[in-house]
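thread: overnight batch results

M.L. [08:02]
morning all. the overnight job finished for the chain we discussed friday. pasting input first so we're all looking at the same thing
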Amino acid sequence: MIEKIKLLNNLIQCNTLDEIMVLSYKLLGNPAFVTDVGHSVLAYTDVTVDEIWEKNIKTDNLTMEFINGDIRLKSEQEAAFSSPVALRINKTYNGENQIKKGLTYNGKRLGLLIVIEKHRKFEPEAVEIVDLIGNVIARKLASNDDMLLRQENSKNTFFLSLLGGKKYSKDQMFIHSSILNIPADHRLYVCVIGNKKEADDHERDTSPLNEFLKKLPASYLSFIYENNVVLLLSSEDDVQDFRTEFRVLEEYLKKNHLFGGISNSFTNLNELKEYYLQGLRALSIGYKLGRTAALYPFSNLMLYDIFQNMPSDKLWHELHPNIIKLLRYDQENGTQLCRTMHAWLDNHKSQTKTSEVLYIHRNTVNYRIDQCSQVMGITLKNHDSLYPYYLSLCILEYLGRI
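M.L. [08:03]
and the structure it wrote out:
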């Protein structure tokens, strides 16, 4: 026991992971290895174990079966990261027991420490010792800039491979999702971040986006693709109000004079490319419409996405005659009846919300809607079928006429 206490005290004096692995073997009497979040072997006990060890560990060619033991127990890895202490897991690696420790620091996942009961039986204090060793390793990894850079590159490689069309199996996707701490039961959204000025420039200066990426909170999964900052957002349920759900993000974007196009929700990361393109289209449409909000949800812009595939003259001919009449009235009298009616319908006929959007008094909204009724010769407030008018007003907004 005295010898173990001395060895434990020596742990904090170790300068390298290899030194820690040597002490680990002296303390536990069993082989161990450390991986990063991408399952690359960072260090291992340099002892003779068996053929499986030689094939996986010493060649840095870990298979998922090796990491998880029995493939049916793949949730062990997630459990190891979720547990505040090391976990003892029975009968996994080649029939032997393991102790797994998820290596985290300040909430960031760094890797795994795995000890295999191969050379001698685990003693009662083995889990506690592995826990202590794992904490020392986590601090070492967190202070290693090269290690953190490699993890960042591993994350980027995964996302870029998906955007390049690569498909992962269900089990492979589980591993990567666990590493990146993406909840399996959450709805996912792609948010493509851009700068309006840069979008208008022929040669884009991406330095503001790179600076923005550096300042993002660690809780956001982010990467650069096609000169855009891309965020992967998640929510327990389908988001109904994006400005409320992602309020912190919107405030962050406004502060940095940036905008974000948000895709519809999805659950299968193999579809990341399709939803990235959807978020990109939402961003482009938001720019075109000149929306003042920082977030552009695609679900609110689907009509305009359809408009993008139609010639402008074709769209013009789709306008309802009453809306053409209202537009001409605006042009002749310098009024904003089309814009007011569009905002009114867009806000479900709420005078309060419409007044807030247009920065006018509620009574002004009421007066203008009455004017719209008079010009078009219908009673808007009691009209049940206003969608054709709303569609026409959306076309006018898309064409830049209101």
